Every structure is written in C-alpha cells, then in structure tokens.
Recover the amino acids of this structure.
C-alpha cells in the first residue's frame, strides 16, 4: 500500500471517530457521499473504483460493518473494533495512523499466507484420499466451510474440479446456483454425489437429481451456511486433525489462520 492510500484510510477513520462518533454517538451510520466527500477533500476527486476499494478494505478488516441492503448501503463502526475517543484530535490522528499501519502490516501478511495455504492444501498429495477418513461431521463440515470461504474470496463464480471434489468427498450440504441457456435454478442444502465429464458436457448429481451442463462454468455460486459456533468448531477440528502428515499440518495451519484472523482482526466468516 502506498502513502497516498494509507493517508486516505487514516483521514477517513479519523473523521469517523473524531467527527461522526464524537458528535453523534458510536452507533451513527454514514453513507457513500460522506466517505466520498472525505476522499475528494484530500485528493481533489474520487472515482467509483477508489470508493469501492476503500469501503471494501475497511469492511474486510472488520473496521466497518454494512447496514441495510445494496441499494442505499450505509456503514458504521464494527462493534468489535477497538479505539479510544481521545479529547485531542492530534491524539486521534496518531491512534488512527497506528491502527491503519498495523492492519496494513499484519493483515496483508495474514491474508497472503492464507491464500498460499489454501492452494497448498487443496493441491497437496494425498488430500483427496484423506478427506473420506474424516469421521466427525462437524469437522468435515468445518473443513468444507473454510476451504469454500477462502475459494470464494479469491475466485467466487469460478468453481474448479478440485473444489467440487472436496465438497463431494466431505459430503457437506451447500447451496448452489446453476445458470446457462436452458437452466436457471437455485438449490439449497444439497450434497454432491457425482461428477461425470462427458465428451462435450458435464453431468452433476445432487441428492436424487441429475443435471447435464455445458461446463463447470455454468455453476455460478456455491455457499455453505455459517454455523453460529463456527469458532468452537474450528478449535475442535484443529484438535482432531493434529498429526504429522503434510496434509494434516497444512490443513491445521489453514484453520488456525481463521482463528488468528478472528482473534486479532475480529474477522468474521461469511
């Protein structure tokens, strides 16, 4: 992150704390025009791309949380975000510089590591052979959830064979949307039984239903619901999966990054 972007984030966070929250309370919401005005005041102009990148950065690190739906979306400070409402604006600025600096330093390292671990886990030797040996359902479902969560962060809307094979072997229920020229359907709480690659099509079987699609590109979205006790499930899964094999070590590392993300950055799992 360059200095210009870091200064932008510091200015926004400072104004939210020292202006909005100080004058209107910590539950105050703010919208696109408020954030855009701050950026425009310090940079002279603001593009739609800059605005979206900015709010996404704060949202992904659980500094802001969303309020409302896509139309007329507003934001507020995340209830788990820690800060001090100091009397001096200079102290607030210094505090915000420190916070942004720490988030830039540690969250970049954290997410880069998680992305690398995701790739290592799903492509490691013996991974598919190991998956059916996971017996506790809350462990297999947790593994499915976190692998899919990381996949969707990077590749949402693009679902490869390795990911689908993971869900099939772990037998975790998920929601799916399939769309092509002849199909436009959504299914909830289904399990994937079989994938068959034909000469020019792909056959996928869910529960008692079978569909023939043109390619895996017809699968537009896959989602697994997040249980309320997901962090407890991660702890249980880490204990269960501890072992000496490379697959186990990488899988446990991946789970631990989500635990660290929640403890340090209050990162939630969608």
């Amino acid at each position: 992150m360059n200095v210009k972007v870091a200064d932008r984030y510091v200015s926004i966070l400072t104004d939210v704390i020292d202006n909005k929250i100080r004058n209107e309370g910590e539950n105050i919401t703010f919208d696109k025009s408020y954030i855009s005005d701050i950026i425009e005041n310090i940079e002279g102009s603001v593009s739609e791309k800059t605005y979206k990148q900015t709010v996404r950065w704060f949202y992904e690190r659980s500094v802001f949380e969303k309020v409302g739906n896509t139309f007329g979306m507003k934001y507020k400070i995340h209830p788990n975000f820690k800060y001090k409402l100091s009397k001096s604006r200079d102290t607030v600025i210094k505090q915000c510089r420190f916070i942004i600096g720490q988030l830039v330093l540690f969250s970049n390292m954290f997410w880069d590591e998680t992305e690398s671990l995701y790739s290592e886990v799903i492509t490691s030797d013996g991974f598919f052979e190991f998956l059916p040996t996971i017996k506790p359902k809350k462990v297999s479902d947790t593994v499915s959830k976190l692998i899919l969560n990381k996949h969707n962060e990077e590749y949402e809307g693009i679902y490869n064979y390795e990911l689908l094979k993971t869900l099939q072997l772990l037998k975790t229920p998920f929601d799916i949307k399939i769309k092509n020229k002849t199909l436009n359907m959504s299914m909830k709480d289904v399990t994937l039984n079989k994938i068959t690659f034909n000469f020019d099509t792909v056959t996928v079987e869910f529960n008692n239903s079978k569909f023939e699609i043109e390619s895996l590109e017809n699968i537009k979205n896959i989602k697994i619901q997040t249980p309320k006790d997901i962090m407890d499930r991660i702890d249980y899964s880490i204990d269960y999966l501890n072992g000496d094999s490379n697959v186990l070590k990488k899988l446990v590392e991946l789970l631990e990054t989500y635990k660290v993300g929640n403890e340090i950055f209050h990162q939630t799992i969608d």
Summary: Residues 103 and 113 are 15 Å apart (CA to CA). The chain has a mean pLDDT of 85. The chain has two domains: 3-85, 113-265.
